[in-house]
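Exercise 7. Given the components listed, write out the predicted structure of the assembled complex. Treat all entries as one system.
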Amino acid sequence: MLSDAIKDEGVMRRVLKRGVHDIIVESEFVERLQGGRPLRLKMGFDPSATDIHMGHAVGLRKLRQLQDLGHKVVLIVGDWTAQIGDPSGRSATRPMLTAEQVRENAATYMAQFFKIVDRDRTETRWQSEWFGEFSLTDVIGLTSRFTVAQFLARDDFANRFKANQPIAITELLYPLLQAYDSVAIESDVEFGGTDQMFNLLVGRDLQGMVGQTPQQCFLMPLLPGTDGVQKMSKSLGNYIGIDEPPDEIYGKTMSLPDNQILPYSEYLTDIADDEISEMRAELAAGSVNPMELKKRLARELVAQFHDADAATNAERNFERTVQGGQMPDDIPEFALPAPDALAGMRLSRLLVDAGLASSAGEARRLISQGAVQIDGERVSEDSAAGIEVGAVLRAGRRRYVRLV
Amino acid sequence: MLSDAIKDEGVMRRVLKRGVHDIIVESEFVERLQGGRPLRLKMGFDPSATDIHMGHAVGLRKLRQLQDLGHKVVLIVGDWTAQIGDPSGRSATRPMLTAEQVRENAATYMAQFFKIVDRDRTETRWQSEWFGEFSLTDVIGLTSRFTVAQFLARDDFANRFKANQPIAITELLYPLLQAYDSVAIESDVEFGGTDQMFNLLVGRDLQGMVGQTPQQCFLMPLLPGTDGVQKMSKSLGNYIGIDEPPDEIYGKTMSLPDNQILPYSEYLTDIADDEISEMRAELAAGSVNPMELKKRLARELVAQFHDADAATNAERNFERTVQGGQMPDDIPEFALPAPDALAGMRLSRLLVDAGLASSAGEARRLISQGAVQIDGERVSEDSAAGIEVGAVLRAGRRRYVRLV
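Answer.
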């Protein structure tokens, strides 16, 4: 099966090009594929982040494609590196997690991971298997192979160093530990975003130094978030989680700027290459309403992370509520506090309690933007006084509760 | 006894000032002395160097003075840091030692150490007691407390970094491990040369961070070597080892430039302060031949590291041979190879074999400088052909063998 698939030019183009920023070194990777041995595909994750979003899905879908060609994913739970915190692309030293937090987060993460990646072709390893017994001698052996200058040349370190922002010495250990993971599991290929290139190359170098065949590095493009500008990330609030309800995935996708329709379609769906070329031509010619292509994308994503029915329902809901201005079919209920409690209560507090805003700050912002309605009437005061049972509270375009 | 001594102003001046570059923080140190508790005086050594020379003796004599006041030396065998190599004041990453080399070197070192320091008031600790069990968690805990910039600000690191010379990441661990030693033994005072200030202060900081009373730092002046310019060090060949034979200590001391007479006398002998002031005045006024003061210094040093008779003999030998041009009383013998072996042999090789030069390079240099004589005749060819049994071979001013 391995050897058949790599003779199919279409399959190879899809696997090696689509949603791939770069492969270091592509010719070596093709050679390994031709070797016919199932490859060990290293994918590390940092359990300080619990949620998988579409940005991660780009790489996980690539893993799945390679699994479908017969290769094996080695999922590394970064329970040690998470205690340090990956400095890649960050501008500040971050607080460490407890071991307990790491374990909880890892469980949440994996539940989502296996929605994309095939569990049966995955070997899960914890860094503690090798770092639990790591001695000072091991640390010395590892740190002696690289210089401070090599590491400070990395963009984010260089910028922080120049700006006199603190870089804990610990942070230099991060890429070394990640690199050692490659040695520990004898990785053939490691996957990461383009901002992980440095770390992936350290792994490649270290394997060569200890006599292993250096791994190939699959660099995935960084997916912009729903703002269309910044890298998708939970902390920036511009993410679409793969575990979100159908209406959220659909609605957030519809909020994308038009210039993201093609990259999202290419990186996150199985829409055929020919069709994507067609979409590109239509968009360039102005012969299609981008909204229609975006709805197609939104359906594809809901269908992929939920199912086809959910996609149909989400689209209907979106058309009724956001496009048609009507209320959705089923509105969640929220128990309104007693009138005397309500009298002195801020509306922002009620919005948070009812799950319509993630923080009092966001709630106040929504109120001041005129994005909060009670029974279809805009509210401008941050007060909950006088709200009655039976009213429908709405925040933004898609969030409703019925007060009971 | 502790409290009595610190009331003696002369004793205190001698302990706190003579041969001390700086104490950080002196007022805190005086307070600790006044506390009356025997202090734990940390002295770490790097067993990558086997020989104690006069440069080290400055600090070891200070330890002994404090032992004589009732305090305790904690000698730390740097069997872990030696595997890294102290980057302080060095301009290049250096090779690591094996554990076996470290053990052998430590034994040689300690035999010399206890010629100065009182063994009965010394507690010897090996870093492996705490670093043998050091985990990656410990390393992370340690490295997270300091930043890369703090460490790269250290002069030698800064210079190497600017000059694009490699600094292994391991070298950043060195000051951290040395600092952790202070925590492990609950050091009250650490001793080191002025080039160790950074490392000593990291120890002081770390103790404060983990809730210990921060140690005081005794910074000892760096003793120039026999060239009078560079810091005394074995690798520069400008050292006087405390374990060298009386004639060597005497002769090397006599080779010092005159401007080193006072610092050597002050840092390395018990010549009274008043006498040293007198010597200073005489030298300034030109009312004394510096040679006489140097002979006094040379006698003091031989007497200290051997005994008074050895000092008398060394002086007599020096006067006969170097000053009087005669041969010393007892010349070591060396078995001359057979004439046919000798015919094709280089003289430089013979000089090394006979112990008159430490390397073929040094031997060739001595020959080209005209510093090699056979029976009083200068030799300029690097050939051993024709040398006969009974001849006296001389290299430099003080080294002889009789060929038998």
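Discussion: The longest helix of chain A spans residues 169-185. The first strand of chain A starts at residue 22 and ends at 24.
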